[in-house]
Write a structure and sequence with these properties.
Length: 505
């Protein structure tokens, strides 16, 4: 069988858990980016429903997978959210299965191959499946299917690639009620994983060649509020980071999906100061105008967000800060947009994802007045994207001359060569194969990369998962060209406390 995964790193974890379940039952599972596996008798498409484009991509993936003789089964967020409605719209899918089917997916696939009819998933608001009180959820969760939480002790995760970085699920669901977001309705209420399970899975990943784990959830700053009597403010995440940093074989631990309204100084300090924890802050600001944020059912303002950025850079001037913003939200005015522009210019973030607002089924924002015309939304996306790219590129350029710790990930062909500072600008380098990795401030897939240059003998001895000390010699957009100085030993880390020009303010 073939497994196609769309969407975020959380879906990646879910797919590897499904692969583990299937392999344990004798299925031969192959990861397939497009489902085009001529040997597969069934293709499972793990769908995404984050934004309209993600829905389209998921539908296209199901249609593409159904182009041959294989039976197609849709699972994942879009299948969970729409269920029978999706099945009716996509007769190409032999089955549309929700999260509650994950525990017996091998049997359901047997049914599909045997031609036995399967009732499509019936969607429900998954927040209703668990108690309102977080502290009552750990016991109730035993009777609820939560993807990505069940790999131990009997469901081994099965890696679908050999990359030296892997996502690791910290928690699932969300208790916040952002007016634009439907995710809690189909991912459910917030549930933390037992820290012992998280550490055990991290050790398993390290034993399988992973050097960096990326902690993922819908809201990592809430971690522990349901399993720690002191709540999230009691330091559950800080303690977990310390335990993960001591897992043998792991070189880097990275936290993602931090909610700015829930971030507290002890967590900022733990990320900045715990050895092997990347000084990296993935903060979901979404906007900077206080009126827009209030309509989004969020908290904050340009001033409070700037204060948070200053607090982070006081701890570590070279810390990586990334965020996402939504433009064109109902009621957004020109003044609101200028407030966002002023924030981005002052905050000097390392990476920003810019999204245009679109209506989502089942959200409060769907019924808000003063909708912005889609053409204007697109224009605002282009306008803010240009600014965000300029700011991020400037931030990258001011890292030239600093020393970074680079996790080597792969070799890649640079089509037009790259400038390591020694080439004649009138004579571009030919295409070449170079090692590519990421520094601590660069998250996987979204925040730029490091292209390694330097001593040929040193470069010849590199491999995925190796960590090197490197000097930044150039910036190309948000990517850095770095000179590899030496390979760091298994217990070595690099102190990167030097300021990064004006960005250290």
């Amino acid at each position: 069988m073939a497994l196609v995964t769309l969407g975020c790193a959380r879906n990646d974890v879910d797919s590897e858990e499904l692969a583990g379940r299937l392999a344990a039952e004798g299925w031969d599972v192959a990861a397939s980016p497009d489902g085009a596996d001529g040997d597969a008798d069934v293709v499972v498409v793990n769908t995404c429903t984050f934004v309209e484009q993600a829905k389209k991509d998921s539908v296209d993936a199901v249609l593409a997978a159904g182009g041959g003789d294989a039976k197609v089964v849709a699972v994942g967020c879009m299948a969970e959210r729409y269920g029978a409605e999706l099945a009716e719209a996509l007769p190409e899918a032999a089955a549309v299965l929700g999260f509650d089917h994950y525990g017996d997916l091998p049997s359901r696939l047997d049914d599909v191959l045997a031609g036995r009819p399967l009732a499509s998933h019936t969607p429900t608001d998954r927040r209703t499946l668990l108690p309102i009180s977080p502290v009552k959820r750990p016991e109730a969760v035993r009777d609820t299917s939560i993807p990505g939480h069940e790999w131990v002790p009997t469901v081994p995760r099965r890696r679908l690639d050999d990359a030296p970085v892997a996502p690791l699920k910290l928690a699932s669901g969300c208790d916040r009620r952002c007016s634009f977001c439907a995710i809690p309705s189909f991912r459910g209420a917030f549930v933390s994983r037992d820290p012992r399970d998280v550490v055990a899975e991290a050790a398993w990943l390290a034993d399988h060649g992973v050097a960096e784990v990326l902690l993922v959830s819908e809201n990592s700053t809430s971690y522990g509020k349901d399993i720690d009597t002191r709540g999230a403010a009691g330091g559950a995440l800080e303690r977990l980071l310390g335990e993960l940093a001591e897992v043998p074989g792991l070189r880097r631990v990275r936290v993602s999906y931090l909610q700015p309204a829930e971030v507290r100084p002890p967590l900022l300090a733990a990320i900045a100061r715990t050895p092997r924890v990347a000084s990296y802050y993935d903060l979901s600001f979404q906007h900077a105008s206080a009126p827009v944020l209030r309509r989004m059912r969020r908290f904050g303002s340009r001033e409070t967000f700037l204060a948070l950025c200053r607090e982070i850079r006081a701890l570590d001037p070279e810390a990586g800060i990334r965020s996402n913003v939504i433009v064109g939200f109902p009621g957004e005015t020109e003044d609101d947009l200028r407030e966002l522009e002023a924030f981005l210019a002052e905050a000097e973030l390392d990476a920003v994802g810019v999204f245009g607002y679109s209506d989502e089924d089942g959200t409060e924002a769907l019924g808000l007045p003063d909708k912005v015309d889609p053409t204007e939304v697109a224009a605002r996306v282009e306008r803010i994207t240009r600014l965000a790219e300029h700011v991020a590129e400037d931030r990258a350029a001011r890292r030239v001359g600093t020393t970074v710790e680079v996790l080597v990930e792969r070799q890649d062909t640079v089509e037009d060569g790259f400038d390591d500072g020694s080439a004649d600008p009138d004579e571009p380098d030919d295409s070449e194969l170079v090692w590519v990795g990421r520094a601590a401030h660069q998250g996987p897939d979204v925040d730029g990369e490091c292209l390694l240059s330097g001593d040929e003998d040193l470069l010849a001895g590199l491999a995925p998962g190796v960590v090197v000390a490197a000097r930044v010699v150039d910036a190309q957009g948000i990517d850095l060209v770095v000179e590899a100085l030496r390979v760091l030993g298994p217990e070595e880390t690099l102190d990167t406390a030097a300021p990064v020009g004006a960005g250290a303010r």
